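Reviewer comment 2.1 asked that we show a complete input and output for one of the modelled complexes. We chose the adenosine-5'-diphosphate case, as it is the one discussed in the main text.
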Amino acid sequence: MSIAARKFLIGLILLLAAGAGIGWIYGHTDWGLLAAALLALIWQVRHLLSFERALRTGNFDDFRFGEGIWEQIFSRFRFERERAVRRKQNYRTLLREIRKSTNAMPDGAVILDADYEIVVCNRAAKDLAGIKRKKDRGQRIDNILRDPELSKLLRSGDHTTTIEIMSPVRDGNWLNCRVVPYGAEQKLLLLRDVTERMRLAKMRRDFVANASHELRSPLTVISGYLDALAGDDDIPETWQKPVVQMRGQAARMRQILGELLELSRLESAGPLQSDEPFDVLALLEASREALAGHANAAGITINAESAARLRGNIAEIETVIVNLLSNAIRHTPSNGEITVAWRSGEDGADLIVADTGEGIDPEYIPRLTERFFRVDRGRSRDDGGIGLGLAIVKHVLARHDAELIVTSEAGAGSEFRCHFPPERVVVTPTIPLS
Ligand code: ADP
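Response of the prediction step:
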């Protein structure tokens, strides 16, 4: 108990004792006690009312003159109140600083709640994407930024992927979007202007496409003359071997240019044109037949584990199958096995090309889809490899919302699995015989 509280209790007891004593002198102890209690009550009520008035008006100056225990209550209250005011001011200053710094950020930042509704955003979000802090609060972000890619990113809940969308307010500008989770189910949408990067990427794509295109015509002429020379029996013998080699190199250049053009086409192609379901098993058969001329193509086994059809571009998927199969053929010895499987389930469908060939060291697997990447450059060049096949596969699969999963081990064969989401798979119900 504090000294003030002790003093208060002693004072109260003394007052009551004095009241009782005076009452006893006059022969009315009870009246004396009652008068003392009333006096104590009036004193308490007076301070209580002034405390209530101060709370109401916010003016606590009078409390400085409180008495006894009330003086302590008043000063304690005043101290706590002043501390709360100071703390509030500090928070306000801090908040102002945070807002100033986020507004100075060149990247847009939008805080979203668990339902992807806008809570607050910075100034760059307004400049880059037209999101208004007050007007758009509570709106779903995909109602403001209407882009199917962004809706897909939000639905997927993937926090590692970034996508590029067109800015709805700045013509021709590109925004890179990333969703970062934080706190209790809240998300931060980060928007970065990547117009310059996209412009450079387009320039590079256009350059490769134009250069490949321009090189094709002179190469056709050179190949034409080389074919004519190869068919001419009158050319000197010393020239016969070089002509054969030149024809081979010209054919290789034609293949490189063709694949580069195909890659450029895929990179700059808009959304997938045809979305018709097609028979994957028939396509697998056709691809096997197309490769029949290769050395160990005969060893390709097709495992038809599903009759599901695939929604997409049949020509592009054929490119994927042919690329994966010709890789398997080139990297598997003739006594090895090559298997193609088509299976479907609740989570989509898989097209798997597996071989028992030379396999790939796991350290190289992440780099396989890079352009011109070859595990063994020298060997690959000899067997006709360019290093563009898997890059083309990756692009085609991305256009089909699919991904390429590679599992391999050096010396133990490889498995290239193309995983398609359920939206791409059409399962035909089996009709009962009865
Ligand atoms: P390439 O034209 O060289 O085949 P790809 O992009 O198709 O180019 O393949 C890249 C590299 O991946 C190849 O050079 C090869 O080293 C490796 N690779 C691809 N498929 C297989 C496979 N089935 N077995 C072993 N290595 C493979």
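The chain has four domains: 3-99, 105-193, 197-268, 276-426. We note this here for comparison with the apo prediction described in Section 3.2.
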